[in-house]
Amino acid sequence: MKRKWMLKRCKGDIKTLAKSSGISETLACILINRGIKTESEIRKFMNPSLEYLHDPMLMKDMDKGTDIIKDVILKEKPIVVYGDYDADGIISTYILYSALLYCGAKVKYHIPDRITEGYGINSESIKTLKEEGYDTVITCDNGISALEQISLAKKT
């Protein structure tokens, strides 16, 4: 059976935006539907650059987090990067793990087993990591809704 892609209707002058941005009308429609609506926004999206990144210190409590990590590294205490088993979880774990190694951290990573540990942060894994001497856990691609596990990690 032959399938046909259906695009959500777009509000705006797709033809003009596509032409001025040098992209197809289909791509212009997709970008508009994702909130990328001006030529400038399209240029930034299609040609990513470090100069377009937001200041990371604008994130809530970023200074507290960086101070904790810096302190742990300087005191040569171990850190565990707790990732996720999907593609972006593995990549984000690798990037953070590599950056911490570069900064001189004593670091290991933990990618949960999908079958035995399930999705997200696993309480038993947190307990095991604590028993292994890991007081500092940094999560990648998980943790935002793991309030119980975060509370457990803070207590243990």
Strand order of the largest sheet: 2-1-3
Structural class: mainly alpha
- DSSP strand count: 3
- Report mean pLDDT, rounded to a whole number: 89
Q: Unreliable segments (pLDDT under 50, ≥5 consecutive)?
A: none
Helix content: 40-55%
Rg is 21 Å
The first-to-last residue Cα distance is 56 Å
Structure, explained:
The protein contains seven helices and three strands, in the order ααααβαβαβα. It has 156 residues and is mostly helical. Strand 1, helix 5 and strand 2 form a beta-alpha-beta unit. The N and C termini lie far apart (56 Å).
What is the strand and helix layout of this fold?
Layout: H1 14-21, H2 25-33, H3 39-46, H4 62-74, E1 78-82, H5 87-102, E2 106-110, H6 123-131, E3 136-139, H7 147-155
Parallel strand pairs: 1-2, 1-3
Labels describing this entry:
3-stranded parallel beta sheet; 156 residues
